[in-house]
């Protein structure tokens, strides 16, 4: 894929995701770089391209509140005055399942800096991945059996019972589009390799947001309920204590496994070590097909503790769509047609970004 630039990535967001037109009022709600998550160069990149396209651009610092994120009356007034609201801030993700102003285009960006705007992640045509998402949703909705596995020992089976109504997914636009609609987990059972750690989901933030294990650990689930862990006695005790603490902290259903999804965007690279910032990793890298992500601990989306399966294989009614972290979009019923229509997306599938910032633990 040639001519990948941050500017093209920003225009992809504005023109293909937001469907922006000259004269539209764009409000960029940003999180200062001092919080270590979004970089200020992302704001400059998008704002510059928006002005070139004839948009009226305003920016507002929304900070970061890990405990009680909310829309203040003054911020709500700014939202009401805008046509397009772009979150370059975790506040958008924290509020994505909450009430937001109606009749607005509200976008949460998973590109957190200029580097990601200048990667295949942001440059692959947004409509291509919207069509791929719709295609895999349709396959899952019609499936009789799905089997999940991975090299570390994941072995989960179930029949998807999809909720493709608007309430089954967040209505906020996401850029880049990098996952399909979450699959409810209540009809799935088996064992999930935890890849050496447990981390949060970006819903709420708390001390000891991530814990790491000394060796292999598997979570056991039955019909969408966590039934226990397998591993060394020390690691199992650590996992149970983490679940006890987080469930008690928020007064939530400890053993509820809400849903799962895998990445669909082969351009979603993460060229940094995830241990430098697990929060940023969890909010950016999950769109890579090398990651399958469960939402757990809490009977709501997205829960508070995620399970991250590395290099998943996903077999749907006997067809292998993900093979050790490689997503074969051409296997979708209209996959060849979608890839033929969007050569930029096809190029990303031919040369996927294998870097997800992951180093095995144990």
Write a brief structural summary.
This protein has helices at 6-17, 40-52, 73-80, 90-94, 114-117, 120-123, 126-141, 233-250, 278-284, 335-341, 343-350; strands at 25-30, 56-61, 84-88, 105-109, 146-149, 155-158, 173-175, 183-184, 188-193, 197-198, 211-212, 218-222, 225-230, 257-262, 291-296, 305-310, 313-316, 319-323, 326-327. With 362 residues, it is an alpha+beta fold.
Write the layout of secondary structure elements.
Layout (H helix, E strand, L loop, with lengths): L5 H12 L7 E6 L9 H13 L3 E6 L11 H8 L3 E5 L1 H5 L10 E5 L4 H4 L2 H4 L2 H16 L4 E4 L5 E4 L14 E3 L7 E2 L3 E6 L3 E2 L12 E2 L5 E5 L2 E6 L2 H18 L6 E6 L15 H7 L6 E6 L8 E6 L2 E4 L2 E5 L2 E2 L7 H7 L1 H8 L12
Parallel strand pairs: 1-2, 1-3, 3-4, 4-7
Antiparallel strand pairs: 5-6, 5-17, 6-9, 8-14, 9-12, 10-11, 12-13, 14-15, 15-16, 17-18, 18-19
């Amino acid at each position: 894929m040639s001519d990948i630039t941050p500017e093209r990535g920003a225009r992809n967001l504005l023109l293909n995701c937001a469907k922006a037109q000259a004269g539209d009022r764009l409000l960029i709600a940003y999180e200062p770089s001092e919080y270590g998550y979004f970089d200020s160069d992302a704001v400059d990149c998008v704002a510059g391209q928006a002005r070139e396209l004839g948009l009226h651009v305003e920016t507002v610092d929304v900070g970061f509140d890990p405990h009680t994120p909310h829309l203040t009356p003054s911020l709500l007034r700014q939202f009401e005055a805008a046509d397009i609201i772009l979150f370059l801030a975790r506040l958008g993700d924290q509020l994505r399942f909450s009430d937001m102003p109606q009749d607005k285009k509200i976008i949460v960006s998973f590109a957190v800096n200029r580097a990601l705007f200048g990667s295949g992640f942001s440059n692959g045509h947004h409509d291509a991945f919207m069509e791929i998402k719709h295609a895999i949703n349709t396959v899952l909705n019609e499936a009789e059996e799905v089997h999940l596995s991975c090299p570390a020992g994941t072995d989960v089976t179930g029949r998807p019972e999809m909720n493709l109504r608007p309430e089954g997914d967040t209505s906020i636009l996401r850029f880049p589009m990098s996952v399909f609609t979450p699959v409810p987990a209540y009809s799935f059972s088996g064992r999930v390799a935890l890849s050496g750690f447990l981390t949060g989901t970006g819903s709420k933030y708390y001390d000891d947001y991530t814990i790491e294990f000394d060796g292999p650990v598997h979570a056991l689930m039955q019909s969408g309920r966590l039934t226990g862990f397998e591993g060394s006695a020390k690691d199992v005790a650590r996992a149970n204590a983490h679940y006890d603490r987080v469930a008690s902290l928020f007064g939530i259903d400890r053993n509820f496994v809400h849903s799962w999804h895998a990445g669909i965007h082969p351009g979603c690279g993460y060229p940094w070590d995830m241990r430098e910032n697990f929060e940023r990793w969890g909010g950016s890298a999950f769109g890579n097909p090398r990651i399958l992500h469960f939402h757990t601990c809490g009977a709501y989306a997205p829960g508070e503790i995620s399970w991250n399966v590395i290099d998943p294989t996903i077999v749907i009614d006997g067809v292998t769509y993900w093979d050790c972290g490689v997503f074969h979009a051409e296997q979708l019923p209209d996959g060849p047609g979608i890839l033929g229509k969007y050569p930029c997306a096809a190029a990303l599938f031919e040369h996927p970004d294998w870097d997800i910032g992951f180093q095995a633990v144990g």
